[in-house]
Structure prediction request, 120 residues.
Amino acid sequence: QVQLVESGGGLVQPGGSVRLSCAASGTIFSINAMGWYRQAPGKQRELVASITSGGSTNYADSAKGRFTISRDNAKNTVYLQMSSLKPEDTAVYYCNAAIFSYDLGEYDYWGQGTQVTVSS
Prediction:
């Protein structure tokens, strides 16, 4: 069984920074792409940033220049460093990972979500 556990959300002032973490655990053979999505109230879930197993990154236009995605393959963990935060960044942030496990093969997993609120 595979789990993604996120941490690091909370209340942040505009212009502030926060780092999200997402650790994968379980019967993992390998992890391919990992990413962060977000969903604001009344809106669809959208991609924020993704990173391949080799370290290639992709960002939404809204995240470019402000957010940095990284991963530690030894720890099966992906991070999202968010800076210069704006109220419109307020959302539930979800971790996603394409994981090949010993029992299920390749499957797309999601974390439970962590709330980030940007407000003064």
In short: The two ends are 40 Å apart (CA to CA). The chain has no helices and eleven strands. Residues 1 and 104 are 8 Å apart (CA to CA).
